[in-house]
Description:
The chain is α/β, with parallel strands linked by helices and 381 residues long. It folds into two domains: 2-53 and 193-242 and 303-380, D-Amino Acid Oxidase, subunit A, domain 2 (D-Amino Acid Oxidase, Chain A, domain 2), CATH 3.30.9.10; 59-184 and 245-298, NAD(P)-binding Rossmann-like Domain (Rossmann fold, 3-Layer(aba) Sandwich). It has helices spanning 2-12, 15-18, 83-97, 113-124, 141-144, 163-183, 246-259, 272-276, 291-295, 355-380, and strands at residues 46-57, 62-68, 71-77, 105-109, 128-133, 191-200, 219-224, 235-244, 263-266, 282-285, 300-310, 318-324, 327-333, 338-341, 345-346. Strand 4, helix 4 and strand 5 (128-133) form a beta-alpha-beta unit. It is elongated, with a radius of gyration of 21 Å. The relative contact order is 0.22.
Amino acid sequence: xxxxxxxxxxxxxxxxxxxxxxxxxxxxxxxxxxxxxxxxxxxxxxxxxxxxxxxxxxxxxxxxxxxxxxxxxxxxxxxxxxxxxxxxxxxxxxxxxxxxxxxxxxxxxxxxxxxxxxxxxxxxxxxxxxxxxxxxxxxxxxxxxxxxxxxxxxxxxxxxxxxxxxxxxxxxxxxxxxxxxxxxxxxxxxxxxxxxxxxxxxxxxxxxxxxxxxxxxxxxxxxxxxxxxxxxxxxxxxxxxxxxxxxxxxxxxxxxxxxxxxxxxxxxxxxxxxxxxxxxxxxxxxxxxxxxxxxxxxxxxxxxxxxxxxxxxxxxxxxxxxxxxxxxxxxxxxxxxxxxxxxxxxxxxxxxxxxxxxxxxxxxxxxxxxxxxxxxxxxxx
Length: 381
Ligand SMILES: Cc1cc2nc3c(=O)[nH]c(=O)nc-3n(C[C@H](O)[C@H](O)[C@H](O)COP(=O)(O)OP(=O)(O)OC[C@H]3O[C@@H](n4cnc5c(N)ncnc54)[C@H](O)[C@@H]3O)c2cc1C
């Protein structure tokens, strides 16, 4: 382990890296053959390690209207590992579910990305809206998200979901992708494009299947099988990804909700009866994992994820994912940090960071960085 770290330190100060240009604010979507700056994956650069619980349902998110006496509840929760990704689309579908109802005053329970986006769409349709959240940004799970635009960790497989869900999912993904495109590169929202590489040592045994949401949502999508091109990896699926920096983005969403006349209130509900004490009769349930206790959905559970944040490197303008025998490794650059991730532990409620995983990430990403540094050196000589 020590050897790997020393190796990387040497790479960090190599002339190949020093020659890499700094990233300009409007230069995120660089061509795939532009240089790749290695990540300085070392314990001395760690800012923090955090754990978040993705709200996971084997049958996919719940977007449904349920009647409780005189109350109408629209559920919009359970988005697993892609709640930011799908937010605009699921919010749009949730708001459509209320279309036949007369009520024009709505309570949104939940102030994560799904609650705030739903609130914003309701406000734009002329509703009077109050958002209630036990936690407000920056303390929600949405603030922990990567957040790479990609529907993933959402359901157990095609056998576990209904046709109706798949139709909702595809429509939500396409609406959401378009909405984020319109926000890209506006510094107020922290949404931008980035080169993204799916790195594999070998081609997969089966040919790739197109994304259910549509391959056309991934700009520049292509498969490369030339190991010389990508640091010795024998199979690379690449595209220009949409990235959302959640700290910047959720702050902007809060501001948009308030500027549109919405009220955001910090408030926790113990039971559904507490919710029904609110004066609003139309309720949007956007409580993420909280819906398990609040609305008794036992099919909802945690998909635990751990992230290690390193000091930012403005020259790192790409992200990647790499599967290893010990688990996944992914890296996304944010303005305020380099984010290292790669864990999905179903049913694990622990919010304590795992030291084993922290070391696996720092060392695993250091190995990838070393390959990137070596490839740059070989190109120069
Ligand atoms: C490590 C990790 C990496 C991830 N990476 C990505 C990614 O790359 N891309 C992506 O799209 N997604 C990613 N996700 C998933 C994403 O974070 C979630 O899907 C998303 O945050 C869910 O948003 P939400 O608004 O539904 O829930 P939350 O953000 O959890 O918000 C729920 C809100 O409801 C409130 N609430 C809950 N219960 C109650 C109650 N009883 N009373 C009052 N309020 C209540 C909470 O306080 C909070 O305000 C990742 C998640 C993790 C953990």
